[in-house]
Specification:
With 65 residues, the chain is an alpha+beta fold. It contains two helices and four strands. The protein has a two-stranded antiparallel sheet with strand order 1-4. Strands 2-3 form a two-stranded antiparallel ribbon. The chain binds iron/sulfur cluster.
């Protein structure tokens, strides 16, 4: 799995960080998403898919496999 984020779309809602703090963080300056792990391990991948699906800005995309 490879994760991509689009900071230009992010509205800083923080849901991705709440869902998978091992993969997503937020900038302390403006709250925009920061990607910590572009290639998350298998045990986090289901949570990453959930985070992508609940992102209100559709700022998270996931490439499989
Ligand atoms: S859930 Fe989406 S809009 Fe909210 S902080 Fe994460 S990437 Fe940004």
């Amino acid at each position: 799995m490879r994760v991509n984020v689009d900071p230009d779309r992010c509205c800083s809602s923080g849901q991705c960080v709440a869902a998978v703090p091992e993969v997503f963080d937020q900038s302390e300056d403006d709250g925009v998403v920061l990607l910590i792990q572009p290639q998350p391990p298998a045990e986090l991948q289901a949570a990453v898919r959930t985070a992508a699906s609940i992102c209100p800005a559709r700022a998270i995309s996931v490439q499989e496999p």
